[in-house]
Design a protein that fits this description.
By secondary structure, this protein is α/β, with parallel strands linked by helices. The chain folds into 3 domains: about 110 residues, 3-Layer(aba) Sandwich (Rossmann fold); about 180 residues, Rossmann fold (3-Layer(aba) Sandwich), CATH 3.40.50; about 210 residues, D-3-phosphoglycerate dehydrogenase, domain 3 (60s Ribosomal Protein L30, Chain: A), CATH 3.30.1330.90. About 30% of the residues lie in helices and about 20% in strands. The chain is built from 17 helices and 22 strands. It has a 7-stranded parallel sheet, sandwiched between helices. It has a 6-stranded mixed sheet with strand order 14-13-15-16-17-18, with helices on one face. A 5-stranded parallel sheet has the order 2-1-3-4-5. The longest helix is centred in the middle third of the chain and has 20 residues. The two termini are about 40 Å apart. About 0% of the residues have low confidence.
Length: about 550
């Protein structure tokens, strides 16, 4: 079997390289320019970088064999996510590897800033002894404003509390209860800026956070306040910060990151009330080794054909959420059932979930449903990553789910108390639905098809018919399948009223050939008959 080829363009610690070399051909080429990378990338199945390699759209389009891009760290500013997503290439990072290192570096800069440590060090090296000049302040009793209370922000909060600091935080994605558990008050950004003695940023760089601290925001802070950025360059308007520091509007700043790196000619480097480090937040031996091993493991999983369920350009699934992974599987299968049994041009899709579990991300369930709906209908291979992009190019709109999701007709009567997943689709023929559940026994079940209540285990081979509810139809279907050597394992009929249109679903042990399907289509009262092939794998989760 051919070993995959992996290109590593930035230093990667030994644990990761050793893992990669066990199963792949690994070539380390440091300092590649973008044109050089464009020339080299067609030869490789995977690319692993850190924060300096620019993985542009041209690079991604040139990667004809490229299956995965790994970033041995947290940020991914240097990777064109839109191009990777459109190409269906997962972009992997290591969100937890640098957490402790970045939090500790923040505290180091916080202490160095408030105690004037770099200035005192330089003074002493110059032969001076000026103790009064470098009288500092204590962290105890100060208010720390934490912008972004994610992984790193939370760890900074824990350490700041140990120093006796009061905490305020702003983060649109957390609940007040989480802030309270960490001893912080959740407040709007303007209130944080006005109240904090020290301000530290821990948010990703996005369109919403780019230069989120500018002239207007800096005018709100205390003249004695100090600001730190150990997150991403570009979160602070550096020109506005320079002006505020020169005017005494802000007392000081500590920067580990810059909008342009290296920050050649940056006037902030000339100010006596600014301290700085060269993007060292995650640069500990422990973090580098952990990151290298983690990204190597993730990349190898993708190259071995395992389903991608955790990527930067994919809604996240917690690593320990086996139940959610099965819901993703169910959503994809339901999408495939709709494509094969109902079909039609899709105008929009709405995915709804009724579950006792809180905060289940509908985004990845929608991606999975779209994968099932679109697979085999376009030349592009569809996966969880590029499914929304392909859907958008086909004019399929994703609409928000309804607030309350009732069960299918008779769902509660049949003891339905588990998760209920429903796809509601607008097609050229009108509205259609398909719904299913995960059973307590670890099965995927179909509960609704195009508005008809059913109760069938989803299996690899199934037949679906639309027919007039009249005597003789079911018997003729059984006879024809028997004549063609097709064994029926289970059968159910769903109808809205006697003698009206009905749906029959059959679980069969083997696929049906075209001759048998043609014979079934000729049965009196038959409207249509369709064969469904489901990519059903064994469910690994069982409710407890």
């Amino acid at each position: 079997m051919t070993r995959p080829r992996i290109l590593v363009t930035e230093p990667l610690a030994a644990p990761g390289l050793n893992l990669l070399r066990e199963v792949a051909q690994v070539e380390v080429m440091l300092g590649l320019s973008t044109p050089a990378l464009v020339q080299k990338i067609p030869e490789y199945d995977a690319l692993i970088t850190r924060n300096e390699t620019q993985v542009t759209r041209e690079v991604i389009l040139s990667g004809k064999k490229l299956q995965v891009i790994g970033r041995a760290g947290v940020g991914f500013d240097s990777i064109d996510l839109a191009a990777a997503t459109a190409a269906g290439i997962p972009v992997l990072n290591v969100p937890n590897g640098n957490t402790t290192a970045a939090a500790e570096h923040t505290m180091a800069l916080l202490l160095a800033l408030i105690r004037h440590l770099p200035q005192a060090y330089n003074s002493l090296r110059a032969g001076e002894w000026q103790r009064r000049r470098f009288v500092g302040s204590e962290l105890r009793g100060k208010t720390l404003g934490i912008i972004g209370l994610g992984r790193i922000g939370s760890e900074v909060a824990k350490r700041a509390r140990a120093f006796g600091m009061s905490l305020v935080t702003t983060d649109p994605y957390i609940r007040p209860e989480k802030a309270e558990r960490l001893g912080a008050r959740l407040v709007p950004l303007p209130e944080l800026l006005r109240e904090a003695d020290l301000i530290t940023l821990h948010v990703p760089k996005t369109a919403d956070t780019y230069r989120m601290i500018g002239q207007r925001e800096l005018e709100l802070v205390k003249k004695t306040a100090r600001i730190l950025n150990c997150a991403r360059g570009g979160l602070i308007d550096e020109a506005a910060l320079h002006q505020a520091l020169v005017k005494g509007q802000v007392a000081g700043a500590a920067l580990d990151v810059f909008e342009e790196e290296p920050p050649r000619g940056n006037p902030l480097l000339e100010l006596p009330n600014v301290i700085y480090t060269p993007h060292l937040g995650g640069s500990t031996q422990e973090a580098q080794e952990a990151n290298s091993a983690a990204i190597a493991e993730q990349v190898l999983k993708v190259l071995s054909g395992q389903e991608v369920v955790s990527a930067v350009n994919l809604p996240q699934i917690p690593e320990d959420s086996a139940h959610l992974r099965e819901l993703v599987h169910l959503s994809e299968v339901l999408g495939g059932v709709h494509r094969q049994a109902i079909g039609g041009r899709i105008r929009f899709i709405e995915v709804s979930l009724r579950s006792e579990r809180e905060d289940t991300p509908l985004g990845i369930l929608t991606n999975a449903a779209l994968k099932g709906l679109l697979s085999g209908t376009v030349d592009t291979p569809i996966n969880l990553i590029n499914a929304p992009h392909v859907a958008a190019t086909r004019g399929i709109e994703v609409v928000p789910s309804e607030a309350e999701l009732p069960g299918p007709v008779g769902f509660a009567d049949r003891g339905g108390e588990g998760d209920l997943l429903r796809l509601r689709l607008g097609t050229e023929r009108g509205m259609s639905t398909v719904a299913g559940t995960l059973t307590m026994e670890g099965e995927l079940k179909l509960l609704e098809l195009d508005g008809y209540p059913v109760d069938m285990t989803l299996t690899p081979y199934m037949l679906v018919t639309s027919h007039i509810d009249q005597p003789g139809v079911i018997g003729q279907v059984g006879t024809i399948l028997g004549q063609h050597g097709v064994n029926i394992a289970a059968m159910q009929v769903g109808r809205r009223q006697p003698r009206g249109e009905a749906r029959m679903i059959l679980e069969i042990d083997s696929p049906t050939d075209e001759v048998a399907l043609a014979a079934l289509q000729k049965v009196r009262g038959m409207i249509w008959v369709k064969q469904i092939k489901n990519e059903v794998r064994p469910v690994t989760w069982l409710a407890v």
